[in-house]
Amino acid sequence: MQTHHDAELKDTVRYLGKTLGETIKNQLGQEWLDRIEKIRIDGRASYQGDGKCSEELKETFKTMTDDDLLTVGRAFAQFLNLGNIAEQEYNAAMNVDASMDALFEHLDKAELTTEKVQEAVGKLNIDLVLTAHPTEVTRRTLIHKHKELADCLQAVHQESLNDVDRAKVETRIADLIAQAWHTEEIRSVRPTPVDEARWGFSVIENSLWEAVPDFLRELSDRLTKDYNVALPLDASPVQFSSWMGGDRDGNPFVTSKVTEQVLLLARKRAAKLFAIDLDRLQVELSMYDCNDELRAKVGDANEPYRALLRPLVSRFIKTRDGIDDYLAGKNPDISEWVESDDELIDVLMLCHQSLIDCGMQVVANGLLLDTIRRARVFGIHLLRLDVRQDSERHSDVFSELTRYLGLGDYAQWSEADKQAFLLRELGSKRPLFPAQWDASDDVKEVLETCKVIANHSKHGFGIYIISMASEPSDVLAVQLLLQESGVSWPMPVAPLFETLDDLNNSPDVMRKLLSIDWYRGYVKGRQFVMIGYSDSAKDAGALAAGWAQYQSQEALVAIAEEFDVSLTLFHGRGGTIGRGGLPAHAAIYSQPPGSLEGGFRVTEQGETIRYKFGMPTLAKRSLGIYASAIIEAMLFPPPAPKEEWRELITTMAGQGRDNYRATVRHDEEFVPYFRVATPEQELGKLPLGSRPAKRKPQGGIESLRAIPWIFAWAQTRLVLPSWLGVMRAIDSVKTPENEKVVNEMFSEWPFYRSRLSMLDMVFHKADPRISEAYDERLVPKELKHFGEALRTELKESISSLLSITGEKDIMANDPQGKESMEIRAAYLQPLHYLQIELLDRIRKAGDESQNTSLERAMMVTIAGIAIGMRNTG
């Protein structure tokens, strides 16, 4: 049944599509518009199962020139962009407060005391880590146009708009769509890590700067109204960190110089934003009454608040301009810069208390309160930069050093010997690194990064993450490097456990680490551990990875309690299911009991940042969903799994791992099939993020990053990594004697239910007919059976899932999500057939081909399909 939401959204999509059609007609003529419209109609019929229209699409594209294929690709990619913008704007307008309403409904039903609610709110700690994994396919210049377009759609949907103003807004919409059509949608060069960081700063400036104080104000107002619990002025229940410019794992372009530049640019952006806020406050706080404390600061000034704020505005402006000068190689007076959050917060709090004391509560809790909230959440550094590096790079430093000192090769030592050496040096007062040591460039780079950390404020940094961590020495090595480089504060160091083996071994590693007296003294009761989702799923399949992640977290929570340490689990989730992506509420509520006690830290990656936080209303809604899910999970924790559930899921996970690896690792035909059936090889040419697609350029499938691995399968709609082997594993334990337990797991255990919910979403995005069309044209005869077998398993898996859920169709419980995908289907279908044609032409032309139209059209289809699927990696 079509809802009002569906009808209104479809009307908006049609309106935007018609406007784009007018733009195309103005440039290329009516004949071209008619061709594109015919392709769109055939695309919809093809999606609905009309085989004749599918054949017509194939034949149409075969007869087109390379340039014509590019034009068609651009048109349908633009249609999909506009459809996404319409949906995004509509979702932002709808149910903005639904998450908050749901939270307070739960609280009311539970009849909780004020003290219990106050305790839960006091523990609320959401740390969202913005990352620039190469998943954002849309250029920044187009993102700006799309945001303007969303604002226009918001305006045009206002019922109070008169005809003159409506016509004005519609003219602006047509203008923006024309601008986008005449703009190159594909970057000509890869973005640098600094470009990526600037993009992250822009998300804060254009969306979160407004959304965060709005969200906190609403949360505080509702708490006060319903429970007489106020959100304290010093609360920062949400905070933002970043990997952009700090994540150097496998990215040679992130250097110590880049990290320092990004730190300074973040401070510059914060200085710019606070200068604007404070100047506005200076204009508004014209009152003359103040308390004695403020009067003592400003003397007999007639306008005491302005007198207090004016010098601070000046210091922020000098900070902003001085950073520009510093980066340009000049020597600004750094003593005039704002150096700490306290310089800002102390002034704001003094103004706030004075206004309260003088009976001006309404003024105190207006713009001033919003600025106080921003100061607490963002601070003078805007966000906190994480540093990530591979454990092998740290080990290389000590190998090179010990060889230079004649102590042997650190890399060859036993774990016990490494720990003894590291702990001895951590307790030593003499320098470890010789002054004359001429280290290799790679080692120098690691040391220079540590020096950058030492030379900047600890408030500008988050945590140091070690990827591929497998032993306590991996953590101790980083702490020694930081100490030797002059880092005078205990920077939190988090091991990242990402492969299946690493996840399974993580409790043992952390127990050994926390058993070291020196280490427990260093961490002062606070430990971070990062759980990797991407590589574990790529390594062992979705089900085995999910259960390993759950067990690892459960064991780590228990170990933290045993050693009386507050544990913050850091979730390295991606936007897609194959990389741990889940709706926020389901993701949080499916975690083990007790895993949120130390806060919730999660990566927000690539294009999902834009979809969740790209507009203030969307950002406010997303923050509300996170807050409500976390508070709910703390107050009403999910049940711990029963023993019989554990036994069954362990059996399922083992079977799922074996099923997955039998195909991906052990079947000799898998890699040859993967290379020809997907655009994996062509993906490397798309200038997405700053990071290379492979950790090792000459490596095979094992060295392919999890993101392009997922991306390639999404393009062909087989979305293989997200489901392969899972339902067959579940079916293998669905015996009559287990039936009662399996049904109980589905109805009572959020973790298990969320696995099946993920599959429901995956199966809706999958399309065996599209995958078959890729195989038909691109896969040699001797490998065709491989794809047929995979599609057979996909179809069987869908049937099996429906038999468990009792639903007649996929996504029956989420009609809005289902409709969302179907709105885009008519535009997605032609892009797939177009991409197949392009892949065939490109591969037949071989390496000698210099056809830029073909290459560009290929990039456009890759980007367009990613946009239509609403995620890439």
TrEMBL record:
Forms oxaloacetate, a four-carbon dicarboxylic acid source for the tricarboxylic acid cycle. Its EC number is 4.1.1.31. GO terms for cellular component: cytosol. The active site is at 133, 538. Belongs to the PEPCase type 1 family. This is Phosphoenolpyruvate carboxylase. It catalyses: oxaloacetate + phosphate = phosphoenolpyruvate + hydrogencarbonate. Keywords: Carbon dioxide fixation, Lyase, Magnesium, Pyruvate. The keyword Magnesium applies. Homotetramer. It comes from the Bacteria. One of its GO terms (molecular function) is phosphoenolpyruvate carboxylase activity. InterPro entries: PEP_COase, PEP_COase_bac/pln-type, PEP_COase_Lys_AS, PEPCASE_His_AS, Pyrv/PenolPyrv_kinase-like_dom. HAMAP family: PEPcase_type1. SUPFAM superfamilies: Phosphoenolpyruvate/pyruvate domain (SSF51621). Its cofactor is Mg(2+). It holds the Pfam family PEPcase. It is an enzyme of class 4 (lyase). PANTHER family: PHOSPHOENOLPYRUVATE CARBOXYLASE. GO terms for biological process: carbon fixation; oxaloacetate metabolic process; tricarboxylic acid cycle. NCBIfam families: PRK00009.1 (NF000584).
